[in-house]
């Protein structure tokens, strides 16, 4: 329960393999989003009486008030089917529902994952192609997705609007219990399985064109291209060889094609049954309505005990001896001879900690141990690994306790793989470090820091944009899914007090030493995984797939080929034919009248603080934050010279991870942990509307309780004035970690790199961003790593220059979020902090190097060209970009938000995802800069995807849209704009609007325009987009070597510039 929490604070570690239905769409809605109103007079709904429950077919098993979340929780059992329901009554308006099934598997065909996708493709009451997409297009949801875990499948939805919420619940319930995909009586339904899972495709009479297609098939190819995911899977399978975790529930592309439609339907009838369901309701809606809704579905089922038995998750018997497993990940052959043989291994040491789920006490204690060992860059196990120089970055996420048996994993990536001896050193180091920590214990300050950090995070319960109700559901499920008490994981307060008392009584050295010995050092269920690079693996995998297709081809007659072509065409036609407008009306929706006309304002006041010869802007937001202060200090980047932009991200990391001249970085990290709820520094850049000058800031952001705010300011003052910049070795570690992180990101999130390149051809802010975080930054980091020893003096001087140039009162802005009384009480601390800064910074001698900040240095922009960036991958990320304001008369208008969302969820979803087989395809329009961008995610196609992008304009121009459809798309857009926000993000949103100079009047105008969007707006937008694309547009794709060659051939007209990046 703790690991997840501290990760959200520290932002660390990889998450367990979990496949989500919807890809991240990368759109930024901060500039226009509006907060929901603050609650006054909170009232928690009272649970229904047992008699009323009985009337609906439910009996109460347990009822309890959980003080940690101010919620009354009632656990019910449906007497007819045995289905369980946790009904959580709280004052939270962000209502959440979930249906969770236990879905263990015996093979790696990915059947639960394909089913997770498929059930949302039409059902009894909603007989259309994709009700899920219709909800995306028409509802006010604050969450809409589905997850496949190694042993369960979850269907969660959330909304703040009660009517909308119940609509979502009904579509989801009908989808899971009555999906068309598992309805064998209609042969048409197999198409859903083929589309979402896999099928043979043949487009032309040329048999060599025969291939496998399918959304999950392709999604998993993308997953299997990422070495970090490969590592996670190999470790899990090595730890649990005899149970369901020993195979891949997401699906291994090599075995997905073994799955038959018959097996798929059987899996549904076995596991998607009320007897095997755990339902979750959370929020401020009416308790009885929940029972009514469920009982309407459950009354038609009888208990299915056989399915329940079959769904039980077994445990892995503990090993008696530690093991070592060697496996491989694919890398491309380097064309640069100096790089040959440099490809590095992953070494990860893993344990299964317990025979079953941890008891609460151990879970809490181990959660603390995990944080103390690994939680910050100064934590001793993490630090020992990095300091050893054996690898480039830490891998393995420490404690994982979401599955039946908790595990612990830690290791290094970027390990020199030429000798086995060297690999062995990592394991030895991990074991020896644990041994010495068990012996010597931990410093008092590190334990105090861990206590404060974890307690702060539990009390703040800041789940970001994730609904709180969903976060609670997932936590509760860790016990509930294994037939244990669902409320236990939510009750941390007494456990925490007990733990603190035990710490005092036993001494931390004894308590943690015992845990380390019992669960790690003396635990024989340990597997060391060596994951080695293999340049032949990709060809082998491709060969294996081709071999299977060859085999099939051999057995096919000409008639078979014809038949397959016909079926391919039939599937495509089916996919491309929209549902009739009449059919779409089955999806319940709201009226425009349900949407408030006025945009909601976030309380903000701006004042000037005069200090020395400067005036500093103080922006503050009077919002109830439960005694926490959220504070941002923003420093403009006007005196950062162009040639040092590449150092900015490292410089920001130095601030919190290098220590100060007074304390080393371990002491500093601990002080941050003891006194604050987290602190970070990063850069922010954005184009401004109608200005060449970008908005560019270094932001120091953090939070603390009201009474520790003075300490927080003192820490910020310390790090910006006295940051230690002399530690070359530490700096080098950060450079190597940065490179390792970028390499993983380029393979896993290639679309963000592609789109970053395209924007960097267009505006100063994006070009600066490319040097600070894109492919250009990656090249700079590689160069820096090579010459760091020789050039350290220069680099060191550059870092000092940045420090003296950036931190100053001039151009500075302070943003504070807390209630008014708290804000008043911290005035003095804020003033003291501002006074401590110099009035103006030290500008570099070469004034020409600062012209970029004025938007006057066109040399910063990347050349306008079409690019292919080659990395080792089995899938593509295709970007295309143009600007709507530059070559067309198009003017900023609210309807553009509706139109780009509509385009993403219709044309692009259908062509790029459904027909094309990519995991995601979407577009975004940046209202500020005018950039219009298309992106695809884990895409099997490249040229075809570009054609589909170009086809958008005709789609818009020829669109017919009845009033209902138009209303739906407006409502869905308003759902994004009025998205639910926790207090800290309200304050932060207002701060972003201030930096981007977006006024409340302007927001109201956009809102009016959105609400009055007409069909003609779509057509006009299509015209303008077409002119813009024709006048000036570029493509950039992250792709493999082979696919790059093919694209160069197919699209000679684009004159691609190809470069191997990894
Ligand atoms: Zn998926």
From TrEMBL:
Keywords: Hydrolase, Metal-binding, Metalloprotease, Mitochondrion, Protease, Zinc. GO terms for molecular function: metal ion binding; metalloendopeptidase activity. Its main location: mitochondrion. Its cofactor is Zn(2+). SMART domains: M16C_associated. Residues 531-784 form the Peptidase M16C associated domain. GO terms for biological process: protein processing. The keyword Lipid metabolism does not apply. It is found in: Mitochondrion. The keyword Mitochondrion applies. One of its GO terms (cellular component) is mitochondrion. Belongs to the peptidase M16 family. PreP subfamily. PANTHER family: PRESEQUENCE PROTEASE, PRESEQUENCE PROTEASE, MITOCHONDRIAL. This is Presequence protease. It comes from Chloropicon primus.
